[in-house]
Amino acid sequence: MNFQNLVLKTHKLEQMHDFYRHTLQLPEAASYASDRFTVYFGATALTFVQSEQLAVSHCHYTVRIPEKSSLQAKEWIRLRMFLHNKGGYDDIFFPGHKKKSLYFRDPGGNVVELTAANDTGSRFKPKFSPADFLKIGEVTAVCDNVVRSANKLTAFGLPILGRAYKHFAAIGDHNGLIILKEPGGSCKFSNLPIQWSPINLTIKNVGTVQFRSKRLTLDKNSYSD
Question: Which InterPro entries match (predicted)?
């Protein structure tokens, strides 16, 4: 499951544009409008749309980088922003997934996770650059009813890892995951609350998944909530 485009809303469009375009140095789409912009994390387009109604966004998404670029990426990010720190550590290793992650926030309040997955095919590079961002590989969506949303996504044709629980479900595969969560608790490696944020996600060869007002809408021709 590959994500083509992730669309998020923000009330700080100018600051977000400066952060993603200049701090992270991501390439930008040729077309630019006064109320939105699009940049690229490798194969995935990331679009921000101006919204005066949204005070703070707490979307959590994951950007994949090659395993052998992990240390270089960490130093590159450190020069540009603060990393989340917990217990004196600014990264975390997940042995079950064989991946190491680090976290930071953008000016709008979104949590960005960089994940160096176990990728034996990657080559060592002495320096990290924005060209080493591979794609957005995981997006967390907060919804009122995780089991119902998971059932709708599987009916839409998406695979599920394991089963859906009341508070959690993982939809997708090793290429891309939608993590469903109920509101409450905090994001990994931070004290930021898990809150709903509007998400529009286009999946290659599948369609568009939208989380609006904590409800799930699916767009595969005419299928919707």
Answer: Glyas_Bleomycin-R_OHBP_Dase (IPR029068)
CA distances (Å), origin 206, targets 156, 159, 172: 8, 12, 12
Would residue 224 count as lying in a domain? Answer: no
Please answer whether residues 25 and 116 qualify as being in contact, where contact means their C-beta atoms are separated by less than 8 angstroms: no
- Give the residue numbers spanning the domain of 74: 3-219
User: What is the Cα gyration radius of the chain?
Assistant: 17
The reply to whether 225 falls in a domain is: no
Confidence of residue 147 (pLDDT cuts 50, 70, 90): very high
Token digits for 120? 């034996």
If you count them, how many residues does the chain have?
Answer: 225
Question: Within 60-144, where are the H helices?
Answer: 70-78
Structural domain count of the chain: 1
pLDDT at 185 over 70: no
User: What percentage of the chain has pLDDT greater than the value 90?
Assistant: 53
Q: How many helices (H) and strands (E) does the chain have?
A: 3, 14
**Residue 18 maps to a domain:** yes
The answer, yes or no, to whether residue 130 has pLDDT greater than 70, is yes
| Domain at 106, CATH number | 3.10.180.10
